[in-house]
Specification:
By secondary structure, this protein is mostly helical. The protein contains 16 helices and ten strands.
């Protein structure tokens, strides 16, 4: 049972319990502005203690800890795609940190082992591993199981560089050329060109495009409702990446007209060939069904080569959509919501390079604006007053 004590203006909880080794222990934490805050956190910890989570004074393998953590806090609470990323991290830990324990690991050992993994992996891959491990340690630190965060200050730099394809984006002129080419190639038999076109005009993730059905496209008002994705592993619909990814996207008049045209031709073709897809997919290949990521990227590379522009992937197309909005002065909060990011911080982190460029541009604009306001030369008013 927990007890609560008010110390000055803040509250503290104290939990007494007996761990798996039969040793009586106490957990204390203070600084809560409200008693209800202390009760809420104490309740979570008591719940974990009942389950036997972190209730032992014995050391455990980092791999065992991480596996228990993702099964308790991530499984069924994140999308299947995201959970597979955690499982990948677990496989990395089993390979590179197989003998490491939560109490013997320190910053030097952790960095040395991370460096071994980093030699043959990209920056983004190393960064993801480090983020996952660090997140898993939060409960250990909060519950006083370990004293120090051995991931703190870790350098997440890979030996093969970043996944440059994901970071590439087109400039406005290239983007315009690509959109016009994709639009000219739209064909209901092979829907890849149409997916490239809509991806460019909406900034939707590939999985969101693959899972888009016509009942979520309002052709009267020109709105697309993003409410699901397509999971190729399960061959079924899946939830969006996060709650914020469920959103409604406005589309321009030309894009709406193109969608109406495509739907008419697609319906006519399916009826003529007597094909009835299991789901009313917007992007559906007559021969192969649901479009694969590889198929779209192959088509996209073909278009880029034909135009002689930077080669990008479907994810790079999403970056281009976002970059275009930012360069055209669209509010970053709107950009974040349109992309379905979990928070504004994610948007600012991903597009920090663009924001830096825009900041330099804004510095010049600020000078112009205040020069207009401050037209009178210094000393004019003083001379008049005298």
């Amino acid at each position: 049972m927990a007890r609560y004590v008010k110390r000055g203006k803040t509250w503290q909880y104290e939990i007494s319990y007996k761990d798996a080794d039969g040793v009586f222990k106490k957990l204390r934490k203070g600084g809560f502005p409200k008693k209800s805050d202390a009760i809420a956190e104490a309740g979570e910890i008591e719940s974990k203690l009942v389950k036997g989570f972190y209730s032992t004074t014995q050391d455990v393998l980092l791999t065992d800890h991480f596996q228990q953590w993702i099964e308790t806090f991530k499984k069924s609470k994140v999308s299947d795609g995201t959970y597979r990323k955690y499982l990948y991290t677990l496989s990395v830990l089993k390979k590179y940190f197989s003998t490491a324990t939560i109490k013997t690991m320190n910053r030097v050992k952790y960095q040395e082992t991370l460096n071994v993994y980093a030699v043959s992996h990209s920056n983004s891959s190393v960064k993801q591993i480090n983020i996952h491990v660090r997140a898993s340690l939060e409960n250990l630190l909060d519950d006083f199981i370990i004293k120090n965060d051995f991931t703190k200050g870790a350098i997440s730099k890979g030996g093969t560089g970043s996944k440059s394809e994901d970071l590439k984006y087109l400039n406005f002129a290239e983007f315009t050329e690509l959109i016009n080419l994709a639009k000219s190639k739209i064909n209901p038999v092979y829907a890849s060109s149409f997916m490239i076109y809509i991806g460019a005009m909406t900034g939707m993730r590939f999985s969101e495009l693959a899972g888009l059905t016509w009942n979520n496209v309002d052709l009267d008002s020109g709105m697309i409702r993003v409410k699901q994705t397509w999971d190729y592993y399960k061959n079924d619909f899946a939830p969006t990446k996060n709650e914020q990814s469920e959103r409604i996207l406005a589309i321009d008049e030309e894009t709406l007209t193109t969608m109406i045209y495509f739907k008419e031709k697609q319906t006519e073709l399916l009826r003529r060939l007597e094909i009835v897809p299991q789901h009313d997919f917007v992007f559906y290949n007559i021969k192969n069904g649901v479009i694969s990521n590889n198929a779209v990227n192959k088509e996209l590379r073909t278009f880029c080569k034909r135009l002689g522009i930077t080669e990008i992937t479907c994810h790079g197309l999403r970056h281009t959509h976002a970059s275009t909005m930012l360069y055209k002065g669209i509010n970053i909060l709107y950009v974040s919501k349109r992309l379905g990011h979990s928070s504004l911080n994610v948007t600012m982190s991903v597009y920090s390079h663009i924001l830096k460029e825009l900041e330099e541009k804004d510095n010049e604009n600020i000078k112009i604006i205040f020069s207009e306001i401050n037209k009178k030369p210094f000393g004019t008013n003083l001379a008049q007053n005298n």
